């Protein structure tokens, strides 16, 4: 556990004793001051809106698309980088920062066009769906893809988004883009994941670059597969069908 996280949990414990604060609109001058100080300190970062935090005297500011949050003093001169925790009255802890990110991710993913994804749907009732950022060359991506028929049989729809791990100027990009450009994307993606010899054909109008950017900036994908559940929670890796079903609550 990092020093920052330890400090934030102690502050969260104090908040739990004091009770939740009402969320109020931030004074415009305070918000302007905070944003100006942060932007002067690091003009390359992308700062979000200034919000009241549960802790008096500190304000929340999302940075780089909401992947991280800063807890900033009212004059913008100091901030804490990390997650804010609340100590529950009955025991245990809740990561308030991750709860906020989870809700944001759910909204972001639901806003994406399903027409730009490669979707494997159940033949019968769809009980749940998952989003999977995938690469055709990673072993666990192949393992998860082998589970797709079983997941479909359990009512789980698999919605693939492209995330070439080696970047957009790589052979991995050309391979995965070939699937998205194919007349039969599902069949082509399966063939590529099975290491079949598929002629590479990258069309100009493909969504791989935008999906890669989405994964990198909004979802904070760090490896493949990365699974985003319906509620916006993230599984950074492979889950077998039984655990996937349990996690989805079906």
From TrEMBL:
Residues 28-97 form the Disulphide bond isomerase DsbC/G N-terminal domain. Gene3D superfamilies: Disulphide bond isomerase, DsbC/G, N-terminal, Glutaredoxin. CDD domains: DsbA_DsbC_DsbG. Keywords: Disulfide bond, Periplasm, Redox-active center, Signal. Residues 1-24 form the signal peptide. It is found in: Periplasm. Transmembrane segments: none annotated. Pfam families: DsbC_N, Thioredoxin_2. It comes from the Bacteria. Residues 123-248 form the Thioredoxin-like fold domain. Belongs to the thioredoxin family. DsbC subfamily. Required for disulfide bond formation in some periplasmic proteins. Acts by transferring its disulfide bond to other proteins and is reduced in the process. PANTHER family: THIOL:DISULFIDE INTERCHANGE PROTEIN DSBC, THIOL:DISULFIDE INTERCHANGE PROTEIN DSBC-RELATED. This is Thiol:disulfide interchange protein. It comes from Microbulbifer halophilus. The lineage of its organism: Bacteria, Pseudomonadati, Pseudomonadota, Gammaproteobacteria, Cellvibrionales.
